[in-house]
Amino acid sequence: MNQIELKALAKINLGLDVLGRRENGYHDVRMIMQSIYLYDEVKIEKKDTPGIEVATNLRYLPVGEDNIAYKAAELLKEEFHISEGVKITLKKHIPVAAGLAGGSSNAAAVLFGMNRMFRLGLSQKDLMERGVKLGADVPYCIMRGTVLAEGIGEELKVLPAMPKCTVLIAKPPISVSTKTVYEALDSKEITEHPDIDGIIEGLEQQDLRKIAGCMGNVLEDVTIPMHPVIDEIKQVMKDAGALGAMMSGSGPTVFGLFESRAGAREAQRRIREKALTRQVYVTNIHSVRRNHNAD
């Protein structure tokens, strides 16, 4: 095998709760992650010359050691003494720095792809153990599907699959620093926590309305006052019939869950009409067949 092409899927958080801060600065979280069918295309090729080469369709992305996909390749090359060079081509569709785990998903795809390409014999668990060294979301991006994440995000438990629905993704043209959001959260009292157990019950019952009704993200209390456009986008989605609309991760991306594709299309039209953002996509929930890790 001289090359492999993979889809690196985006994720949304159906629920995100922060339980506290550890002495080392990491936060204890309880969140429900869900992969969606919005993806980057990742191509890995063997090359004659040694080293790692990264190419991307976005000029502003780093392509050297600061790129997490590069770090993923470097990690396996060093551990398994792989002498052959690799070229990684990232065709980015997932909005960058958006709370959708695009970078983590690229890294997960590189770990998965190189494991296959070089026949390293690593299990999914092995890949996840290596992935956490690159970032807290990488193990989930290897696992994918509907998953409860606890601890600092590394303790993962598979949940019943999310009921099928249409998902609208809208990323306003602003940047949000995850570090700044968590630091601001530390300085305030969290008074309302999302109903994570309620979401899990909704998943067990395959009740989309219950899931949507229990959704919540404590980080909204920090990010929305900084960027009120997030709340405006949520409201447009709800007015167009979203069962629930919420910020994903530390933002600024907002997603809405819709029973019908027509409702999502209408919300997309209104968001564009109000010029809230140009990055707005209609997509679907991505369910994982548990004996497969990648497309």
Automatic annotation (TrEMBL):
Enzyme class: transferase
Residue span, GHMP kinase C-terminal domain: 200-274
EC number(s) given by UniProt: 2.7.1.148
Superkingdom in the source lineage: Bacteria
InterPro entries from the UniProt entry: GHMP_kinase_C_dom, GHMP_kinase_C_sf, GHMP_kinase_N_dom, IspE, Ribosomal_Su5_D2-typ_SF, Ribsml_uS5_D2-typ_fold_subgr
Family note: Belongs to the GHMP kinase family. IspE subfamily.
Protein name (Swiss-Prot/TrEMBL): 4-diphosphocytidyl-2-C-methyl-D-erythritol kinase
Organism: Candidatus Mediterraneibacter faecipullorum
Gene: ispE
